[in-house]
């Protein structure tokens, strides 16, 4: 079985639970976001799913390998980009990569063309024979990503992959991630960069010691969608009539702009016909999604109570 299947996974350090009751699945070809505030248990979860830490209870299968009983095979099969690039400063980029090629017992001649294509994509081609100690933070990060991909893993865990990268490099990395997913690889992205999560992930889990939410990104954002309407004159004149609609929407007005919070798409036509009947001249009406950040912060707030 490929992809990731997690069932009631938990880790305690001593008597203190770091994470518990984690249950989710990630399909091949999916970019799955693992979100949560500092100390929420993301790293602990990733370490369990990559065979670096034994769970206290529960089970998970990653790329067909049990995290409990097949740690060795699992560690060889997955790709893991950790927060710290963990490169050998005194070795050149090529030597660093060669080290991992040997570790995975791969034929260098066979894998190098793919590695070379990543080096080119990330602007590192031509720098292969320089010592990593002299690389900038971004160059080290990009080399660490190449290293994560050396063995062509089917399941890839990326912790803050674009941290420290300039916008152009960050885009190159995002494009590479999307491409890896389109090749049918399973990708788990841990990130505090919610704009990046919105761009890359199809589904997310929000955790804080336990699962607070597990949903397609679209669904999370739909919670609290709104309609942004521009009318002639002051929007405030229409607030009362809109709030009197059967579904009693919350209405915010500012100058000629009205923001009507909806609970479902089907309410939009009612809002517009109500406005027109009340004599409003409507210039535009645009559905607006609530930014992921707002939904995320609300989930964390609710999770704390
Ligand atoms: N080896 C360890 N020994 C004891 N406690 C640990 C250990 N590793 C993690 N923890 C605890 O487990 C909890 C979860 O930590 P974890 O590093 O998984 O969080 P995180 O979500 O990755 O945070 P961040 O976003 O800051 O990286 C924290 O309370 C942390 O102190």
CATH architecture of the largest domain: 3-Layer(aba) Sandwich
Give the helix/strand class. Answer: alpha/beta
How many discrete structural domains? Answer: 2
How does the major sheet shape up?
A: 6 strands, mixed
| CATH level-1 class of the largest domain | Alpha Beta
Number of helices: 11
List the ions, cofactors and other small molecules found in this model. Answer: adenosine-5'-triphosphate
Q: What is the CATH homologous superfamily assignment of the largest domain? A: P-loop containing nucleotide triphosphate hydrolases
Low-confidence stretches: none
> Strand order across the biggest sheet?
6-7-8-3-9-10
Q: Residue-averaged pLDDT, rounded?
A: 92
- Using only C-alpha atoms, the radius of gyration works out to 24 Å
The CATH topology assignment of the largest domain is Rossmann fold
The percentage helix is: 25-40%
Give the total of beta strands.
Answer: 14
Alpha-carbon distance between the two ends: 38 Å
Shape, per Cα inertia axes: elongated
Beta-strand percentage? 25-35%
Order of helices and strands: EEEHEEHEHHHEHEHEEHEHEEHEH
